[in-house]
Specification:
10 strands, eight-stranded mixed sheet, two-stranded antiparallel ribbon
Length: 226
Amino acid sequence: MIVDTVEYAPGRLADLLGDFSARTVLMWHGQQSNARAAMRPLAALVAEHGLGVVLPDWDSHSDDGGRGDLLRSVRYLTDTVKPSAGVVLVGWSLGGLAAAGLTVHAREHGIELVHTVCLAGAFVVPDLISGQPLENALADNRRRTPFTLLHGVADDVLPVEVSRSFAATLERNDWPVTIVELAADHGSIAGATYDSAADRYAAATDFETLAVASDVARRIAGVARR
């Protein structure tokens, strides 16, 4: 898979993979700073389904918690990539929380989303996009983009109950949501493995993790085709 790396904002890089004449997938990694490499295996697997993928770095440790980076990646997508066939937003962990936040506030930020996929979303802290609890804006939003929540039952970082609770909150507010519990942990659901020596997630190379990532990519491609 050919990867084109671009500077989407000063000092911030993003990987572009796949066919951008088709539906586009914007993917956000989790809390680690500049960790797009950890999600590259999943991004490549998604692109193999005939989709265009934008995978940016962002820094959750910046003064604004990463909000500026995330929104600049959205601006790059809309102004430079200019997707013509719709956008699917995918976020992992803290990036999953941010993805949900952008979905709820999409109109304010000038983006139309056809579907949002959260991988082990960190729905236990305030939304990075608005700075408020997600549920505060759910009832007032007229455009209810469908959600798919994927969560590993072996996740010991964010228990699967976190996604179950958020799914119930979405349902109470009439948002379409599907929750799928997978035989995965916090890293494998995003195609990553935890390196305890470096205290970071890294791109997986083992068969078992890549098999999980392949299943996740298939599910992302499935909602992208709707």
